[in-house]
Write a structure and sequence with these properties.
By secondary structure, this protein is mostly beta strands. It is built from 1 helix and 27 strands. The protein has one helix at 422-425, and strands spanning 2-26, 29-57, 69-100, 104-129, 132-134, 145-169, 173-186, 191-204, 209-221, 242-257, 260-276, 279-282, 285-288, 294-310, 313-328, 333-334, 340-341, 346-347, 354-364, 367-379, 383-385, 395-397, 401-413, 429-437, 445-455, 461-469, 474-482. Strand 19 and strand 20 (367-379) form a beta hairpin.
């Protein structure tokens, strides 16, 4: 049982402005110059005090004290404090162009971006367990977590790309080939990145409307500021870009059933990942760990079908199967018995093996102005780890995500039913919708509050993960109007 007091006051502000100048010297040639400015300000202020009691419950079936507390095994306090300020100023000037012909087209671009970032971090967390500060020391009062820094990062990025698409017609199929190359240079880590990629689409001249596509490419994700700051506020300015090699094949099949249109699509993909920056999630915040380096992979397959299972009412169903793992370099640890453990590959935070989604629409017979839709989601368990990240391979699992939504829609204005009133005459379509999200009130965890006690006789601390749940049942009312 945890009791909280205190408050959190955060403020996030973003401003974006852009000016685009377009030129068309020739009918098939388009040129653009784009100037843009972006500013982001984040202010975090919180002092949260949590006091907790840890009790052992009676789980004996049929006991008179079933589910009651029979022993108190821990009392403690958790105090979190932060005064953080982040300001980012980003200016960008770029040129983009395109040239179109019937059998091919070209696209290109080049840009320069100036970034100025100021970050002040001052946060700490104190844990008191049964009168002992954690971590416990005979000499000092130590904080469980402390971060303090004044970081500044001024840098320049230079990027560009060139892409061409070619249409090739043969006696058996239409062939579309898109290829390109991108470059990126950032003077913060002095790294030049070159990434080629290609995509091929084949539309064979078959009686059935089937299309095949395949793609491969080398992709980079250069770091932005937050990926370069570790949990203690230290800036790792020379962090290399994350790298991924993609391979993808897929197919699309368009067909008719019950004299109604349908489309089935599927994709199979594999991505090899290197220079990864591991991260952990806490509530909705992502904490990157740039002092660790990892490699990994993503592999999966996706299926989706959509069409009019009920005439004039679009519905769809999807299934995704995915596996993603990573291996942190030099992440060995030593057990109390002095044995050395090398964890190897372990699950990434996004490793969700199965995702299922279904959206089904229907309407009342002989009265299509009333529509009903049902949406169902299922996501299998995803991993989460302890907050200290000393053993990243020791992951736990959240409960599976489940949600069912239902909605009712009523058409109040459409093209067949209009009045002569001026305001109503300008409206093409208008609907009133009422929806119930999470109809059955499933308790889906969003994150976990970690409660830590002093070390036991073997020197091992006890950790308790207390779930924070997503919002339960929600009723939503909406009016949509199309002019």
């Amino acid at each position: 049982t945890i009791f909280y007091e205190g408050q959190e006051k955060d403020r996030f502000e973003n401003f974006l402005g852009a000016l685009t100048l377009s030129f068309q010297p020739k009918k098939d040639l388009n040129l653009k110059i784009i100037n843009s400015f972006f500013n982001s300000s984040e202010i975090l202020r919180y002092d949260i005090l949590g006091q907790y009691w840890i009790n052992l419950l009676d789980n004996t079936i049929g006991s008179e004290t079933a589910n009651d507390s029979i022993l108190n095994i821990g009392v403690g306090t958790n105090l979190q404090h932060a005064r953080n300020n982040l300001s980012a100023y980003v200016y960008n000037i770029s040129h983009k162009g395109s040239f179109y012909k019937a059998e091919y087209n070209l696209k290109w671009g080049i840009s320069w971006q100036r970034e100025r970032i100021f970050d002040h971090i001052r946060e700490w967390e104190m844990i008191d367990s049964a009168g002992y500060s954690v971590p416990n020391s005979d000499d000092i009062i130590a904080m469980y977590h402390f971060a303090s820094s004044h970081n500044k990062l001024f840098s320049n990025r230079f990027t560009g790309f060139f892409q061409t698409a070619v249409n090739l017609n043969t006696k058996d199929a239409d062939l579309f080939v898109t290829g390109g190359i991108r470059f990126h240079y950032w003077d913060a880590n002095e790294q030049l990145l070159i990434s080629p990629r290609i995509r091929i689409t084949i539309d064979p001249y078959w009686q059935k409307a089937v299309s095949f596509h395949a793609a491969a490419g080398l992709y980079y994700q250069p770091a932005f500021y937050k990926e370069m700051v570790d949990p203690y506020g230290q800036l790792h300015a020379n962090l290399p870009a994350q790298e991924s090699i993609h391979y993808l094949i897929g197919a699309t099949y368009t067909f008719s059933a019950w004299n109604r249109p349908f489309k089935f699509s599927s994709e199979l993909y594999y991505k090899y990942l290197s220079h990864l920056v591991p991260y952990k999630t806490e509530d909705v915040a992502i904490q990157y760990l740039p002092d660790f380096h990892a490699r990994g992979y993503v592999a999966g397959i996706e299926f989706k079908i959509n069409g009019e299972f009920v005439k004039d009412a679009e519905s769809w169903a999807s299934l995704s199967i995915m596996k993603t793992m990573e291996d942190v370099y030099n992440d060995y640890y030593v057990n109390p018995d002095k044995t050395v453990v090398y964890p190897g590959y372990y699950r990434r935070p996004t490793d969700q093996l199965i995702n299922v989604g279904i959206y089904f629409q229907d309407y009342f017979p002989n009265n299509p102005d009333y529509k009903v839709h049902v949406t169902m989601f299922y996501g299998s368990r995803i991993p989460f780890g302890s907050p200290d990240y000393k053993k990243p391979s020791e992951n736990y699992e959240m409960k599976a995500y489940k949600r069912i939504d239902i909605g009712l829609s009523k058409s109040i204005i459409n093209k067949q039913r209009k009045s002569d009133k001026l305001i109503v005459k300008a409206i093409n379509d208008a609907w009133v919708n009422i929806e119930v999200f999470n109809l059955f009130g499933f308790k889906n965890p969003a994150s976990y509050q970690w409660i830590k006690t002093v070390n036991n006789q073997e020197g091992i601390p006890n950790l308790f993960a207390v779930p924070n749940y997503l919002t339960g049942r929600v009723v939503n009312f909406r009016i949509s109007v199309e002019f």
